[in-house]
Amino acid sequence: MDSALLALLQIRPILAVADGRTEVLARVRTQRWALEKLLATLRGDVERHGLERVAVHHLADGLAGKALAEEIAKIRGRDVPAYLLGPVSGLLVPPGTVGAVYQARDAMRELQRGSVVEGA
Fold first, then answer.
1. Beta-strand (E) ranges in 1-120?
2. For the domain bounded by 31-105, which CATH number is listed?
């Protein structure tokens, strides 16, 4: 789907890296639903594969980054760092982007794919 149309419809992709490629796990209609889907995916991955390390990245939205880090800390059981993405990232994603990067303890063979999730 074209990025301008995604922005107009307020659809946010949830991305994952698998085998060196970036793939879309799901597309959701609001940031709240995107964060809920991200947290649900993380919880499921941690339950099945364990968690080696995790960090939150944000682009010009430190409050959202901190809030996501606090939610992930509840899953992890200890603090999670939040980092500002560099200026090159701003060429690829808009300000306000927030996400988590994590490494499972055990090898993950599958991705939990979804589709558009309607938000309220």
1. 12-18, 21-28, 53-58, 82-84, 98-103, 116-117
2. 3.30.1180.10
